[in-house]
Amino acid sequence: MSKLPNVTTSIFATMSKMATENNAINLAQGFPNFEVDDKLAQIVAALAQKEVHQYLPIAGYPPLLAKIAKLIFDSYQRKVLPETEILVTSGATQALFTTILALIKKDDEVIILDPSFDNYEAPTLLCNAKTIRVELNDDYSPNWERIEKAITPKTRMLIINSPHNPTGKIWKENDFQSLENLFEKYPNLLLLSDEVYEFISFEQKHSSIHSRKKIANRSIIVSSFGKSFHITGWRIGYLVAPEYLTKEIKKVHQYLVFCVNSLAQAAISDYLEVADVTKLGNFYQEKRDHFRALLQNSRFELLPCEGTYFQVVSYASISNENDVDFCKRLITEYGVAAIPISAFYADGKDQKLIRFCFAKDNKTLEEAAKRLCKV
């Protein structure tokens, strides 16, 4: 008997497979198609000749832990203890999975805000716990009245994501104040904050839970080097939490992966000496603006994009098809792959919206836009 009877092949895998089979431009799955920084490539080449190929401590490569602590302080003015409050993980997905597996018990309830990344639900179900899906507002801001109504004595965790995948929404100051008020009323509630796109924000800059002193000691914050440094295939991220939580998370981590790829950890540790994450927003803003300009003459309606490297568009004026069928036809007839937004809702809510990834080189974006303007 399946422990995840309703889980099938993910929409990301499905659309990427169709893109390959139809020789389509893949703007579906969220990965860049341009080269990594040459400085990082040189660091990897040099380190490959050194003794960095054996097991590392469970929590991570000590020099990297220290660099992460410095990055957090430089970015958010928060002091964290490298030895006890940081855990290097095999990507953000493993950080999310391990956190939920470690902290959620049978019959607990976990609130997920829809539309949401599909990796939040499965580990919750594997804990024999219950997911409570609460829809965001029409503009994808959190609806605090609905969220509070969803809280019961069994509620253990709230999962949030800003900058938001799939919509690109960034929370505003009043949202964080409402969050703090909520946590003051419910002292047993934990926060899991997915901030993998933290350095990819545009006109409105990202605000992190790292900066919220009132709730940081009840929060697990997940970050991704894969997203920040265009190395999604490396599968390396990290989480930050107070010691009483990381202690429990590490217990599960050691039996899942024990430790993360040693060469990758050493390389990123060295790379953080020369990398400048503050430039990442400008880099992707140029791509966002270029892609949006290319689509101005199309029949798609472009929704706001405040962060991440995803652009959501409406095709309501083009077709009455459901978004899954429209995405499939977009691949087979026009050679461009996208992701239907209904896949991010528990009930499959279809608003005739699809998501494109613009983390591509300009040549790819220009050819994709040329095809999309023919739709």
Describe this structure in words.
The protein has 375 residues and is α/β, with parallel strands linked by helices. It has two domains: 11-34 and 278-372, Aspartate Aminotransferase, domain 1 (Alpha-Beta Complex), CATH 3.90.1150; 38-271, Type I PLP-dependent aspartate aminotransferase-like (Major domain) (Aspartate Aminotransferase, domain 2). The protein is 39% helix and 15% strand. The strands form three sheets. Strands 2-8-7-6-5-3-4 form a seven-stranded mixed β-sheet, sandwiched between helices. It has a four-stranded antiparallel β-sheet with strand order 9-10-13-12. Helix 6 (121-126) links the parallel strand 3 (109-114) and strand 4. Helix 2 (38-47) packs across helix 11 and helix 3 crosses helix 11. The protein is globular and about 55 Å long. The mean pLDDT is 96. Pfam families: Aminotran_1_2. It comes from Flavobacterium alvei. Belongs to the class-I pyridoxal-phosphate-dependent aminotransferase family.
Q: What is the helix content?
A: 25-40%
Distance from first to last alpha carbon? 44 Å
Q: Which whole number gives the mean pLDDT?
A: 96
Shape verdict: globular
Q: Briefly note the CATH topology name of the largest domain.
A: Aspartate Aminotransferase, domain 2
Q: How many distinct folded domains?
A: 2
Low-confidence residue ranges: none
CATH superfamily of the largest domain: Type I PLP-dependent aspartate aminotransferase-like (Major domain)
Q: If strands are numbered along the chain, what order do they take across the biggest sheet?
A: 2-8-7-6-5-3-4
Structural class based on helices, strands and sheet pairing: alpha/beta
CATH class (first level) name of the largest domain: Alpha Beta
Q: In angstroms, what is the radius of gyration?
A: 20 Å
Strand content: 5-15%
Question: Helix segment count?
Answer: 14
CATH architecture of the largest domain: 3-Layer(aba) Sandwich
SSE order, as H and E?
Answer: HEHHHEHEHEHEHEEHEHHHEEHEEEH
